[in-house]
Amino acid sequence: MIVLKATTEQYNNINNYSNGSYVLQFIKDASDNWVVSENLLNEPVFEAIHDQLNELERIEYVPIPDPEE
Questions:
Q1: What are the Cα distances from residue 2, in Å, to 16, 20, 21, 68?
Q2: What does each C-alpha distance from 42 to 19, 49, 67 come to in angstroms?
């Protein structure tokens, strides 16, 4: 799965962006990257920040291993 990876500066600029009840929140992947779904580029509620989202690097998501496995 392809995700959008933010630098620290990009993360600080757009993490917790909200539009009504919709809030953009990054998560950490197993490589310690701040990431969000690439699908946000298709969400009208985040249209105001689509340009900023398009600047983020596209990477393959690395899931955090389940500690029980």
A1: 21, 26, 25, 25
A2: 15, 11, 33
Q: Which helix (H) or strand (E) holds 52?
A: helix 50-54
In a domain, 35, yes or no: yes
**Per-residue tokens: 39:** 């699908």
- pTM of the predicted model as reported, rounded to 2 decimal places: 0.91
pLDDT at 11: 98
50 vs 17, 32, 69, CA distance in Å?
Answer: 12, 24, 37
**Domain count for the chain:** 1
24/22 Cα distance (integer angstroms):
7
